Every structure is written in C-alpha cells, then in structure tokens.
C-alpha cells in the first residue's frame, strides 16, 4: 500500500504540508511502475476470485459452482496492463498541473466560445431533421425505427435533464427523487385518459400542473434541509410514490400498472393503417408504425425546446437570478429581502412540472406504464446527466444525455466486442455496469461536469464566462 | 401479548443488522461528511461473499458449524474490507476536497457498479439458503402461539454487542480513534498536525466495510437469502438509523438501527405489510426534517 | 442643537442560547442620519445584536422598533405591541417591530440592509448580477412576478435598465466599475467588502448595518471605507449602524457609540465620552474597575 504511493501520482490533499524531497533513493521508475501494476492486479484478483470465479447456481435442489476463473485471470491481466498503460500515458502528468477548469472570469471569446456558438445551431438543425436523417441513413422506415426510437429516448432524457437542471443546476437543491414527478405525470395522463377520455393535449397541461403541485408538496417539508439530507429525503419521497403506486391497486393497477393507454392523434389523424382518420391515408402514404414514433419525436422535441426557451428566459428574470443566488449563498439572499420559501418552491414546482410533461409523453408513447418504469435508478440517471453535463449548463445536459443514454445504448451495436471477448459476450448485459463506471470516471476526471463555466445573465461591457472554481454548487 | 413479544424479538434482530451497517455510515459521514451511497451495496457484496464461502466449505466437506462460521467470518470481513478500501481509493479519494456533489454522484455510480457487478457475476436470482443455525429456545407457549428466541438471533445479539464494544473502544481509546476524531473536527488541521489523513480515512472505510461484512453474514444466517439488490433499501434504512442515532455516535447508530427495526416490524405486524417500506421512508423523512441531529445529538444554531 | 429623530429603538433585548446569555437586557437608540457604532471586546454579543435586528435570530426577550419617517409614531409603540401586529403605517411614517418580522421581511418591508463579518457575496455571479439581486423585490414586481417578464409584457425591460443604472452608480461609487463583469469571488478582499456595501445600498435601505466593515483592510483601504461611509450618510438618506473592532475607524466617524461587554451595555454616548469612560477602558484592558483610574492615568501619561 505504502510502496505504491510513491509510484502512483500522489495527490496532496488541500492544505497538506508541502512534502519535503525525500532523501531516500527513489526506486527505478520501471520497477515502481511494475510494482503499482502488480499491486492493483493482486487486489483485482483477490476481489474477483470468489465473486466472479465461482458463480453460484441452483442445480438439483442445491447450490453448485460454475467455474469462471478464466474471467478472473482475464480481469487481473486487464488491470495489470491497463494500469501500466495509464501510468505511461494519461497519468504521467502530475495532476496538480492539469488545469481542471478555467479560473476566475474569462472573456467569452477564443475557440471554446466559437465552438459553442457553432455547436448550438448545428445541434438544433440535427435535432429538427433527425428522424428523417435516421430513416434516410439507415435505408428505410423499418430499419430506421431503432434510430428514431433512440432519438426519442435521448430526447426524453434531455427534457428531464433540463427540468431537473432548474432545481439542481440553478437553485442548487439536490433532488434524488425527480422520477416521482415523471411518474406523477405519466399516471395522471394514463388515469385521466382511461377514466375520463381526455385527450393527450388536454392532459398535458393538467399533468404538468399536478406534478407541480407534488413539487410544492415535496418542497414544503424540505425547505430547511441542506445538502445530503435533502438528497436522501427526496430519494425517500420518490420511493414512497413508487411504493404507493405498487400497493394502491384499485387506483393505479398495482405492480402490473396501466395497459392500453390510448395513443394521441395528430390533429385528429390517428396512426392506424386505414380509415377516414388514418394519418397514412390522409397524406396518401403507405402506413408504417414508425410514423407515430416520428410524431412523438417531434412532440418531445417541441416540449424540450419550450422548456429550453423558458429556462433561458427565466435565468435572466429576477426569479432565475434569485435561484442562482440561492445556490451561491442562502443567508445573503435572506438579508436582501428574497423569500427563500417562494424561491425554492418555484424551483421545485417548475422542475416538477417539466418532469410531469416528460412523464405524460412517456406514457403516451409507451402505451403502458408500471411502477418499474419509475425506480430510483431513473432518478440517478437524470441527476447524473445534470451533474455530468455541468451544473446549470443546458448544452452540457445535451452532451451528457448523448454520452450516457445514447452512448450506452450504442453498446448494442458493438459487434467487434464480441470478436474480442468471444461470441458469448453480450455487451448489452453489461450496460448498467458500464454506465456506473462511466459515472465514476467522469466525476473523477471532471468533477464539475463537461461544461463547467457559467455564462452571466447580464453584462455591462463585455460578456465573460465565470470559471467553475468561483461557482458555489449550493448547500440546499 | 405473545405476538407482541415475538415481534419485539424480531424487531430487535432486524434492527441489530441495521445498526451494524449504520456504524459504517456514521463513521464515514462523521469523518468526511459524505453519504457513502455504496455502503448498502458493500453490505450486499458481503452477503454474496459469505454465501460463496459457505457453499465452498460445504462442498469441501467442512460442515462443523463453528469452524464454518469462523472461516466465513474471517474471509468475509477480509474480502469486504478490501472492497471498501478499493471503493474509497477508486471513487472517493480522487475527489477529496472537490465539489460536494461530485463524491455523491461518484458514490451513486459505485453503487450501480457494485449491484451490476454482482448481478453479472452471480446472476440475478434470489439466493435462498437453509438456516445454518436452526432451532431456538421456546420460552413462552400458549395453545396456538409460541414465542421463539432463535439461536441465530442470540448469535446476532451477542455479535452486535461484542462488535459495538470493540469498535467503541477503538474509536475512543486508540491512536487510530484519536486520529479519526481529529479528522472529524477539522481535516486540514489534522493533516497539519501530522495525522496521515488518507490513511485514517482509508481505515475508516475498512472498518465500516468490516462491520457491513459482519452484518452481511448475520443477515444471511438469519434470513437465509440474498440477491444483488438486497443492499439498496437496507442501506437507506441503515442511513436513517445513523442519522436517528446522531451522526458520529456508534452506540447511537445501533440504537437508531434497533428503533428503525422495531418500527418496521411492528408496522408490518399491526398495520400493513405492503406499506412497511412506506412507513420506513416516511420515518426517514421525518427524522431528517425534524430531528436532523438525532436522538443523541445537540441542536445546532445557524451561523450567520 | 435640534432634536434628532430616532430611527431604531432597542429595548430590553436579551438573547439566550441554551444556558449561554449572549445579550443581556440591552437597550439603546440610534438616531436618524447618525453613524452609531456598537463596540466591545470579542464575544461581547455584538453580532448577536445584529442578527436580532436583521431578523436572523428571534430574540428571547425584548423589542426592536424601526421607524420610517416621523418618529412621533413611536408614541404608538405600546399600542402596536399589544395588538400583536408586526408593523403599522400612517401618513407620517411607519413603525416596524423587527423582532416579529422574518429575516427577508426585515429587508423587504423595514428596509434594513446588512453586511456580514465573513463576507457573503454571490461568488460565482458577476458584480453586476450581485447588485441586481439586491433589487430583487422591485424587479420581481416589475416582471409581473415572472409571468409578465416571461412573455415580454409590461415594463420589465425599463425596470431592469433602471436597476442596471443604479448598480452602475454604486459600482462607480465603490470604485468597482471596471470589474463589473467579473465574478465577485475573483475580487480582492477589500474590494469584496466594498461590493457587499454596494449590494446592501442597492436594496434601498433606511438603515445600513455593517458587521466589521474594516476587518482585514489595510490603512489605505480603511481610509477609503471611512470616506465611503461618510458620503453614504451625507448624500443618501441612510442611517448607519456599525460593529467595529478597529477603534480608529469608530472614533473617527461615529456620532454615537454603544459599548457592550459580556452581552451587557456598559457605556453609551459620544466618542469622546466613551473614550474616557473607566468601564470601557476596563473592559478593553481586562482589569478590575478599581484599577482603572491607575490605567487611565498611565494611558494619559
């Protein structure tokens, strides 16, 4: 343990006394390198040997082992070589020297600003034309289905991320139960449309408002809470909602959920093969179930853009500045006459409302919902997207949704992985494992997320971005 | 009355497990102020390790219960402690002194990693196992109902008390404990005074994981089942116990654990089984909102 | 000398934390247009008094009355206290019982602004943004509580431009104009103190409470601070209440000094009177009262 500390890039804890140059002769770098790699390989071997090496399988009324020791050896070798490789490449630079984020305030010019200015319109164009691009590039509606589906999925998470961004990114309130509002939106729509026959477009605002009410209901008791405690209480709230959905069978259909939710129509045109209200017949094109998917893509895109525009405008209004001020210093806010109660509750309500919108669309697209769609892992996904994107950055959320949701989903297409690890290796099986690893890696690599600097909401002479080291991440 | 008594015993048994896990939360939260979100999953990993060791010993023909228990206990504690150490080293240490949210997200990521690691390595099925220590003392009997104190429960109570005593001694009387308490007060100052902060924190994680391993083995003996998802809810309840008992207090953590265990068992017994977790989560919220410093804690005055 | 009107009246204020008595039966008045200083050794309870006045602490006992306009309204104080109201407004002025108001209402309604001993700026936001947040309630109304502003209706644009002008004025006044678009946390210490004062002034206060504004400043910065405070008092209709350690600052600019020791008031009067008060000398030098004559002699010798 101690010996590796000399080889591994030592990170001095902040405030630690400067280390005097040691009079002891340093071991040869190559030996240190091998020692470090050997130690981590040994750790890997010990950790994985019992758990990975011997899979317990129930066979014939008792447990027997499936021998997987070859995998253990593979992992050990992987760690050994990986450690050497990383130490020779990425970790060569002393970590203190790597500028993690721009410091202070920097003028918003330079290549980063140009890239950002170029990236946004390009992304918009791609987002708007995406279903057609996908269908065209993959060679037809049937083959394009997967890609449109993926687009809908990524877009849903972008919408959820932008909604949660108001709460976590701007107001600095860590909410680990955001999925509750997603669930409330979905169930509100499903129950209203099943029981009262209300249309999708009628339900959308109602679901948003009801989700917002839930946001206030959650917001009130947690006003006094800060930091991790707030995170845990919101997590508990999310779990309570899910457990109630499971157990209140008469109302919510219990664990089996609600099936056969009516699908929304396109201005009265339905996505059915034939008939007077058929979308395909009306436009004189061949029927395809992908039409409905494309329609959903645009519904979600439109909602997301509305949310985006509203968020951007709100940031420049007093309420938006108050959110950010709250994140920076709550006590100073109170000394300036800002009602912390109102400010926090509006953030919770608005974030919840956007979550409710997303839930409505989700229920309508899926056609069936059940409590398993709204587990904690969903909340973790959304929080991860917001934090990994960079708190407060809308563009960052798009990037991290692409990486985390789109990228992980792409594992399905990695045929070459099978070529390396053998045909029995299915990367899809390891989706969540890889997701977790990516979360840890991004946090260690960029603790403030992909886009960490902050654009001021107003400027007198010149617009400068505020570096991450200046920005507080909130205590609430 | 008999029913009540039986529930009381079961509640304290469940609570002891929560308490053992809660000590891990309370020590880590006390020293670096972060919720080790993956701690519940470390507990789950330890149940799996115990299971694998158990089956291995059985298939090797070792069936003497005391030997089996001792070997599993030592093996599980060692391996789980190594897991705890590795998690801290990989996911938390690089983020020390970083922004507050980063370690929390990293911990959530680690929790996802551990769950899916176990799911992939050991399968998603629920592993059920016959009780290793069967039987118990029947000390109360009426026509239709008898109150049992199982031997596994006695083992659980004894272990909890012994472990609590040992760890309280470590924290209050040894140099390591002093270093831990110094870091709890002020990490920067502690490091200036020559305390090896990294090592102290590492050891804290190792201690927490060891206790989780003890809890994991006890859980497996007592309930006879586990799966890759077993750590999540138990972990959250144990965290509630840690807060309820007052962060930083070891006896408080066990006391909090027993309180949560009793509430859960009695709610399930007298009100509704379906909603027992709703009750647990509601208590969690109420405790955090109204009793943030716990039963044994002192109220804080807001610094302006 | 013309009778000075009262702006703040503190009566029998006590604040206990558990068994600890931080402030013990404190009464004093601050006059309109004055700079009133509260001084005392470390741990004398000065900041606690501030926190009670600005609503951050609810005092255990006592009454804190703030007057807008004509102080003849103080004759109604017992009446208001008895009715349980938080404040009352007449044509001549208004009376606020600060101990009954929530912290943010103290700023919003009673217009008491404050700074903090350990500077509390919105570090990740620019100087200009800091000063706009101080005008939150005014801008909130102008934006139609967000709805109007969101739809681009109403006079929000105009109100924001006015707010920016006001911010520009205070940035200029505190010598921070050229750093308007930088993050507040990137300012040097002394500038942060000035920014905090500018931010407090942007909230349009009638009473400005400064918690150790000179702490950590060098001599030149201290001088600048004095000038700033004097000009604020002269050009703006603001009274100042000030906690200070630095006796130089206090003696130079205050009109009236209240001295605390162990939560009790031990002296109250003009700088000259306070300076020669044996109790004050004793408190600062930590000697028994009987010995103070000797100390005073030694000091004057």
User: Could you say which overall geometry of chain B the principal axes of the C-alpha atoms support?
Assistant: globular
* Mean pLDDT metric of chain C: 84
Low-confidence stretches of chain C: none
Q: In CATH, what is the homologous superfamily of the largest domain in chain C? A: P-loop containing nucleotide triphosphate hydrolases
Could you say which structural class the secondary elements and strand pairing of chain C correspond to? alpha/beta
Number of domains of chain C: 2
Tell me what portion of residues of chain B adopts beta-strand conformation. Answer: under 5%
* Integer average pLDDT of chain B: 86
Radius of gyration of chain B: 19 Å
Q: Gap between N and C termini of chain C, in Å?
A: 34 Å
The number of helices of chain C is: 13
Strand-pairing-aware structural class of chain B: mainly alpha
* CATH C-level label of the largest domain in chain C: Alpha Beta
Strand order of the largest sheet of chain C: 7-8-9-3-10-11
Oligomeric grouping of the chains: heterotrimer
Provide the low-confidence segments of chain B as ranges.
Answer: none
Number of helices of chain B: 11
Largest interface: A-B, 67 and 74 residues
Overview of the structural elements:
Chain A is mainly α. Chain A has 18 helices and four strands. Chain A has two domains: 2-7 and 27-97, no CATH class; 105-176 and 223-350 and 364-413 and 446-466, no CATH class. Chain A is 63% helix and 4% strand. A two-stranded antiparallel sheet of chain A has the order 1-2. In chain A, helix 5 packs across helix 12 (318-328), helix 6 packs across helix 7 and helix 11 (290-315) packs antiparallel against helix 14 (340-366). The radius of gyration of chain A is 26 Å and the shape is globular. With 304 residues, chain B is mostly helical. Chain B has one domain (17-229). In chain B, helix 5 crosses helix 6. Chain B is globular, with a radius of gyration of 19 Å. The mean pLDDT of chain B is 86. With 301 residues, chain C is α/β, with parallel strands linked by helices. Chain C has two domains: 1-111 and 206-217 and 239-268, P-loop containing nucleotide triphosphate hydrolases (Rossmann fold, 3-Layer(aba) Sandwich), CATH 3.40.50.300; 119-204, 3-Layer(aba) Sandwich (Rossmann fold), CATH 3.40.50. Chain C has a six-stranded mixed beta sheet with strand order 7-8-9-3-10-11, sandwiched between helices. In chain C, strands 2-1-4-6-5 form a five-stranded antiparallel beta sheet, sandwiched between helices. Chain C starts with 5 loop residues before the first strand and ends with a helix. Chains A and B meet through helix 2, strand 1, strand 2, helix 8 and helix 15 of A and helix 2, helix 3, helix 4, helix 7 and helix 9 of B.
């Amino acid at each position: 343990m101690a010996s590796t500390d000399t080889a591994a890039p030592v990170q001095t804890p902040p405030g630690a006394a400067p280390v005097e140059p040691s009079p002891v002769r340093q071991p040869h770098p190559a030996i240190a390198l091998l020692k470090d790699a050997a130690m981590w390989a040994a750790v890997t071997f010990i950790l994985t040997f019992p758990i990975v090496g011997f899979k317990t399988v129930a066979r014939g009324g008792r447990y027997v082992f499936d021998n997987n020791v070859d995998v253990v050896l593979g992992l050990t070798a992987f760690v050994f070589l990986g450690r050497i490789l990383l130490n020779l490449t990425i970790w060569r630079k002393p970590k203190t020297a790597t500028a993690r984020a721009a410091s202070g305030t920097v003028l918003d010019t330079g290549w980063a600003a140009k890239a950002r200015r170029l990236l946004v319109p390009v992304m918009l164009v791609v987002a708007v034309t995406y279903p057609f691009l996908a269908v065209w590039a993959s060679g037809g509606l049937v083959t394009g289905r997967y890609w449109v589906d993926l687009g809908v999925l990524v877009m849903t998470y972008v919408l959820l991320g932008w909604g949660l961004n108001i709460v976590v990114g701007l107001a600095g309130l860590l909410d680990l139960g955001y999925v509750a509002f997603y669930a409330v939106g979905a169930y509100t729509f499903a129950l209203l449309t099943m029981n009262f026959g209300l249309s999708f477009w009628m339900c959308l605002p109602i679901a948003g408002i009801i989700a917002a009410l839930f946001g206030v209901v959650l917001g009130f008791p947690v006003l006094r809470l800060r930091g991790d405690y707030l995170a845990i209480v919101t997590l508990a709230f999310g779990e309570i909602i899910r457990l109630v959905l499971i157990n209140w069978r008469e109302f919510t259909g219990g664990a089996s959920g609600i099936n056969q939710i009516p699908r929304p129509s396109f201005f009265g045109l339905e996505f059915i093969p034939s008939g007077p209200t058929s979308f395909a017949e009306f436009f004189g094109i061949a029927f395809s179930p992908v039409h409905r998917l494309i329609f959903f893509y645009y519904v979600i895109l439109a909602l997301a853009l509305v949310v985006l525009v509203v968020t951007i405008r709100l940031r420049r209004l007093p309420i938006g500045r108050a959110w950010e001020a709250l994140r920076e210093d709550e006590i100073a806010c109170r000394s300036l006459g800002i009602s912390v109660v109102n400010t926090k509750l509006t953030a919770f309500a608005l974030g919840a409302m956007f979550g409710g919108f997303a839930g409505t669309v989700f229920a309508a697209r899926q056609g069936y919902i059940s409590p398993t769609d709204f587990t904690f892992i969903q909340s973790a996904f959304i929080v991860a997207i917001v934090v990994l994107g960079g708190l407060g950055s809308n563009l960052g959320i798009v990037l991290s949704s692409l990486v985390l949701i789109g990228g992980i989903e792409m594992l399905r297409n990695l045929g070459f992985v099978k070529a390396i690890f053998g045909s029995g290796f299915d990367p899809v099986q390891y989706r969540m494992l890889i997701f977790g690893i990516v979360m840890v890696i991004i946090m260690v690599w960029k603790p403030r997320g992909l886009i960490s600097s902050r654009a001021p909401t107003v400027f007198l002479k010149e617009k400068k971005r505020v570096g991450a080291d200046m920005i507080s991440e909130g205590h609430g | 009355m008999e029913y009540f008594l039986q529930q009381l015993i079961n509640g304290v048994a469940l609570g002891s497990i929560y308490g053992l896990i809660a000590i891990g939360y309370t020590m880590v939260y006390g020293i670096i102020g972060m919720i080790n979100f993956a701690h519940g999953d470390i507990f789950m990993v330890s149940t799996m390790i115990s299971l694998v060791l158990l089956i291995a010993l059985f298939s090797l023909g070792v069936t003497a219960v005391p030997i089996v228990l001792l070997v599993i206990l030592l093996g599980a504690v060692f391996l789980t402690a190594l897991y705890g150490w590795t998690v801290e080293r990989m996911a938390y240490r690089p983020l020390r002194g970083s922004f507050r949210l980063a370690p929390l997200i990293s911990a959530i990521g680690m929790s996802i990693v551990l769950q899916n690691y176990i799911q992939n390595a050991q399968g998603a099925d629920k592993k059920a196992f016959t009780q290793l220590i069967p039987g118990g003392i029947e000390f109360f009997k009426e026509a239709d109902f008898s109150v049992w104190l199982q031997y596994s429960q006695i083992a659980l109570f004894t272990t909890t008390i012994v472990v609590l005593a040992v760890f309280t001694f470590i924290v209050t009387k040894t140099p390591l404990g002093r270093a831990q308490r110094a870091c709890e007060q002020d990490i920067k100052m502690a490091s200036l005074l020559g305390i090896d902060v990294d090592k102290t924190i590492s050891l804290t994680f190792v201690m927490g994981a060891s206790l989780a391993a003890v809890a994991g083995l006890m859980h497996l003996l007592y309930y006879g089942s586990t799966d890759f998802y077993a750590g999540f809810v138990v972990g959250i309840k144990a965290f509630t116990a840690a807060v309820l008992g007052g962060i930083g207090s070891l006896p408080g953590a066990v006391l909090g654990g027993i309180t949560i265990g009793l509430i859960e068992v009695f709610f399930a017994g007298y009100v509704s089984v379906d909603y027992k977790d709703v009750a647990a989560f509601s208590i969690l919220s109420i405790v955090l909102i109204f009793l943030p410093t716990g039963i044994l804690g002192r109220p804080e005055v807001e610094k302006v | 000398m013309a009778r000075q009107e009262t702006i703040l009246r503190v009566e029998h204020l006590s604040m206990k934390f558990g068994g600890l008595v931080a402030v013990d039966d404190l009464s004093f008045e601050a006059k309109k247009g004055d700079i009133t200083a509260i001084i005392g050794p470390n741990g004398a309870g000065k900041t606690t008094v501030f926190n009670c006045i600005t609503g951050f602490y609810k005092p255990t006992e006592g009454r804190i009355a703030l007057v807008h306009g004509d102080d003849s309204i103080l004759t109604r104080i017992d009446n208001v206290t008895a009715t349980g109201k938080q404040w009352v407004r007449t044509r001549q002025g208004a009376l606020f019982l600060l101990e009954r108001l929530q912290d943010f209402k103290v700023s919003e309604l009673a217009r008491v602004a404050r700074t903090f001993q350990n500077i509390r700026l919105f570090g990740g936001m620019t100087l200009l943004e800091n000063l706009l947040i101080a005008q939150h309630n005014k801008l909130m109304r102008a934006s139609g509580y967000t709805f109007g502003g969101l739809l681009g209706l109403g006079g929000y644009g105009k109100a924001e431009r006015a707010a920016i002008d006001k911010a520009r004025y205070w940035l200029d006044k505190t010598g921070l104009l050229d750093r308007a678009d930088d993050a507040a946390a990137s300012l040097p210490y002394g500038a942060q103190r000035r920014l905090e004062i500018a931010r407090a002034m942007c909230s349009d206060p009638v009473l400005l409470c400064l918690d150790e504004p000179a702490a950590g400043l060098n001599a030149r910065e201290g001088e600048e601070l004095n000038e700033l405070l004097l000009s604020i008092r002269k050009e703006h209709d603001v009274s100042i209440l000030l906690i200070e350690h630095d006796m130089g600052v206090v003696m130079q600019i205050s009109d009236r000094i209240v001295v605390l020791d162990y939560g009790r008031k031990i002296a109250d009067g003009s700088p000259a009177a306070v300076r020669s008060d044996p109790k004050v000398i004793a408190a600062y030098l930590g000697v028994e009262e009987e010995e103070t004559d000797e100390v005073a002699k030694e000091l004057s010798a």
